[in-house]
Amino acid sequence: MALRLHIIAFVFLPLILSSQPDSPVGRDPFLLGARLHRGFIIPHSRDIINVSNSKPFGVEISAQWLLHREKYTRNSGVIAKRGFVLSYINFDNPEVLGQSVTFAGFVEPMIRPWGRFYGSVQMGLGISYLSKVYDAETNPTNLFFSFPLSFLAMTNAYLHYKASPHWEISAGFNYNHISNGGMKLPNKGMNFPTWNAGFNYYIKPASITRPPKNDDWKAQPRHYAYLLAIGTLKTATANDAFPENKMRWQLGGQAIIGRRIGRMSGLSVGTEWVHDGFAQEMQRREGLEKSAWKGSMLAGHDLLVNRIRFTIHIGAYVFNPSGDIDPVYQRYGIFYRFGKNLLVGSTLKAHRHVADVFDVRVGWVGLFE
């Protein structure tokens, strides 16, 4: 399967791309790309050292839109790409780790793209299908994955060279994390960096010029706030005393206020309160009846790229009677603003290097003086 994907990406795909018509006038320039990957697995826990010695390899294809028009760069002064990527990774251990197929969306701010050489930083989130997962009897050493559908978060850096108006070649480094967010245990999650090389093809050549820098953002409201509803599911795994898996809801809300301190940066603080059905189930199994509510205070940074918002917050519990997890955690989020006030996104909560849970968030965002 990997060999077939390599052939499609690097032999037939260029021929297909060359026959595509120019994109309609007025639309964002469209690119198609492909890359080969080779990497390694980080053994971030003693329990997975024995199955972390493989060298993952794979291939990806991508569809991208270049956001270089003034309406995108007016406030940020940054030219970016956004798009989707479909990737195949073979974890080089077919009996235990198998393969993954991932579909992800991304945003990619570009560094000096008006030159022949330029750089970019890509951030994205997606869904992975995993062919091999943990099974107590048939696959007990795969503590990375326990559910066939998991989430992928990625942060990547690239260097590009424009070989012609249509073609550019690139090389880069990816940092990938796959986890089910603690929805089913065991869930050590896999961190696997990869080196890559590939190409992009512009369906219609685009002329990129340096966007004018202005201070329009300073005249806009500097403060912002968002109120979000929170929802996710997490599974209490079966054991000898409780032979059935139990999926339990985690529901709650978050309130954040922040101040924009730069063209693309904001500092924010807030609070979130969640009714943790998973913690309630685990207490029930131990014969306890403590409150399942968890409340915490948050502080962190918001990266503002047009309608997209990346957030990193440190949280500390101020109310957690169950006392079942560490008192401090990290929360990583990606959001998209629809219209003026609708904010939709997802976050990953982690305690140090261990992912706890992914969730979905939706609500209101607004600006004020």
Q: How many structurally independent domains?
A: 2
Task: Summarize model confidence as the mean pLDDT.
Answer: 86
Order of helix and strand elements from N to C terminus:
HEEHEEEEEEHEEEHEEEEE
Percent in helix:
under 10%
The first-to-last residue Cα distance is 56 Å
CATH class of the largest domain: Mainly Beta
Please describe the structure with a list of short key phrases separated by commas or semicolons.
Porin; 369 residues; single chain; eight-stranded antiparallel beta barrel; eight-stranded antiparallel barrel
Describe the structure.
- The chain is mainly beta.
- The chain has two domains: 2-202, Beta Barrel (Porin), CATH 2.40.160; 216-368, Porin.
- It has four helices and 16 strands.
- The chain has helices spanning 2-18, 70-73, 216-219, 277-285; strands spanning 30-39, 57-67, 80-90, 99-111, 117-130, 149-162, 167-179, 190-202, 223-236, 246-260, 265-276, 293-305, 308-319, 328-338, 342-351, 354-368.
- β10 (246-260) and β11 (265-276) form a beta hairpin.
- The chain starts with a helix and ends with a strand.
Task: Give the arrangement of secondary structure elements.
Elements: H1 2-18, E1 30-39, E2 57-67, H2 70-73, E3 80-90, E4 99-111, E5 117-130, E6 149-162, E7 167-179, E8 190-202, H3 216-219, E9 223-236, E10 246-260, E11 265-276, H4 277-285, E12 293-305, E13 308-319, E14 328-338, E15 342-351, E16 354-368
